[in-house]
Amino acid sequence: MIWYDFIFDNPRNPDVRGIPLGRIKQLFPEASIKTWRVTLAPPISRVVTRLHPACYAVFCAVRPFRTHLLCWIRKR
Q: Which pTM does this prediction carry?
């Protein structure tokens, strides 16, 4: 299964709640999970791409700025 979701809550919208990796592991305790932090935080990406589109790659290289988790979940 492929999982893609926020890992942090949205401070401006209480209806958007992140799901951290620990919770995903609880949901699939018997699974093998490979993970990647992806997607630059949308508020950051909107600002930096206005400066220059190449800034997206530079800021995306900073792991704490990536706010989504992509998981490959498979049965063991």
A: 0.82
pLDDT, position 29:
95
Contact 56, 48 (CB under 8 A): yes
Nearest to 7 by CA among 52, 50, 37: 37
Phi, psi of 36 (to 5 degrees): -140, 135
Q: Label residues 40-74 b or e (16+ Cβ within 10 Å = b).
A: bbeebbeebeeeeeebeeebbeeeeebbbbebebe
In whole angstroms, what is the distance from residue 55 CA to residue 2 CA?
28
Check residue 28 and report its DSSP letter: S
User: For position 26, what pLDDT does the model report?
Assistant: 96
pLDDT tens-place string over residues 38-65: 999 999 999 999 999 999 999 999 999 9
